[in-house]
Amino acid sequence: MEINEETYRLFDRYHAGELSAAGRADFEQLLLSDEQLRNEFDWLNLAVSEIRMNGKSILKKQLAEIGAGIPASAFEKYSPSIKSKSFFKKWWWVIAVAVAIGLAATWFVLNRRSSPEHEGIDDARKDAVIESKDVQGTIVLKDEIIDDDSSPFGSPGAPATSDTISEVYVNSISGENCGVFSVRAISRSPNVFNDAERINSSGSQDSMDPIYYSWNDVSGATSETILKVECCLQNSHPAFYTYANRIVLSATYTDTSGLRFFQHGNELMMTDSKPGYFILQKGSAEKPLVRIKPYSVKGDLKDTVKEIISNKLKPAKK
Amino acid sequence: MTAYTNEQELLTALRRSDSAAFRNVYITHFNMVKYFIVKNNGTEEDAHDIFQEAMVVLFEQLAAGKFELTSSLKTWLYAVCRNKWMKQLEKQKRNVRMNDFEHADDVLLQEEISDESEKLQQLRKSLSRLGVGCRKLLLLFYYFKKTMEEIAVDLNYTNADNAKSQKYKCLQKLKTVYSSTPE
Question: B26 vs chain A: nearest CA distance in angstroms?
Fold first, then answer.
């Protein structure tokens, strides 16, 4: 095949994909059979390849000149979006963490300060307790309630010893040992525990296990415990102050010693015969005890109280 | 900076290898690429190189009619620059590792490619010896993918056919220079 301008136009059309399928096949067949044509085609391909390389370097050079000719201030105008993105990326986590810490701290503070959730309780003694004038009066009222057959405590279904309370939680502080006791079947006889189970404690023991005091009911262990508490108070024992504003104890045993005890605490917690318990808070001189509404209990009473106590009595870090 | 009403208009201008369009893209998107490369062990100079390479790819795809913008130009440029920079970093890592080995294989490889590169070297020399007019015509047709009509206008030929004939003559001239250029 003679090589001329037409041949080159054919090459260009082949490269540009302008040939039909048949035309393309014919051309490729021709390339195989005609060595001169093939050589010419190969040369053109090589030349085009170099021309393109050359074109690429020319374009890159032009682009480099364009880039170099742009003042830095022109780029700056288009920086903010990137900067703000980087700012966002960099500070987003800081802000998120700060917000999370803030929320956690707020929740923690509110959780510590807030009253328990009040869901009401069917409690006939509500007014009597609220209107108590002092701790001693409350105890008297409570005793009256126990004797009252219409009260949940004095109902016919109550334990045979109708003068017992099904469960009372006592916070006992002995030496360095602070324990919360679940006391069952408490006799109305002063200062007697018939059964006690420590459900929460912290600190180390110094002399005697509080349970020991609890079990030794007949020997006036409660008095000893309270005395020990008083000792803690007098010595400004750190363990005591960890709990001081959240003291939980049984009003049943707050005689004169207990009264002093309570003067240093803010809360007096008493269980109810129904699932639940209520809290008496120290009020004003005229109204030393203010009852705040009870927690309602779902499921096992002891577990719930344990949970509540463990939250409320969490030792503070020194 | 020349303003374009939309990206399609900008792309059309880029296809024409309009330097104002390249400048526009450079100003608008370079900082984004620079930010990425500098943050990833590169320098501003690396950023310019990568950005220019991406612009070359953009132009070549536009010229070949293969460019399809499925997202924004900014996204496209970012993706291309990112890939190019990652490849370069990988290449640099490989080079560092390769330095620990003997280069015996390189010699063999070098021999295999030397024949092809010699021809290209020779062609490069031939191209540089070609007249400016011919070189420009060939570049406009084969690299910048201009039509013969556009070339006729750009290079002041009377018409497209005239430009076509001129192109053939230029190729023949290149071939002659190539044949006479010592290896």
Answer: 7
A 191-230: CB under 8 A from B: none
Neighboring chain B residues of A42 at a CB cutoff of 8 Å: none
Q: Cβ–Cβ of A62/B19 closer than 8 Å? A: yes
Residues of chain B contacting residue A86, judged by C-beta atoms under 8 Å apart: 35
φ/ψ region of A203 (left if φ > 0, alpha if ψ in -120 to 50, else beta) reads: left
User: Do residue A70 and residue B27 have CB atoms under 8 angstroms apart?
Assistant: yes
Question: For the segment A80-108, what is each residue's pLDDT rounded down to a tens digit?
Answer: 454 555 555 667 888 889 999 999 998 88
**Cα–Cα nearest to B59, from A66, A181, A75, A190:** A66
Asked if B177 and B129 touch (Cβ cutoff 8 Å), the reply is yes
The residue to which tokens 């109810």 are assigned: A272
Residue B26 touches partner A, C-beta closer than 8 Å: yes
Contact with chain B for residue A77, Cβ under 8 A:
yes
d(CA A237, CA A221): 21
Rounded CA-CA distance A302/A215 in Å is 19
What pLDDT is recorded for position A283? 53
What is the per-residue pLDDT across A106-155, written as a single tens digit (0 to 9) for each? 888 876 654 443 333 333 222 222 222 333 443 444 444 444 444 333 33
Q: Measured between CA atoms, how close is B112 to chain A, in angstroms?
A: 17
Region B130-151 average pLDDT: 91
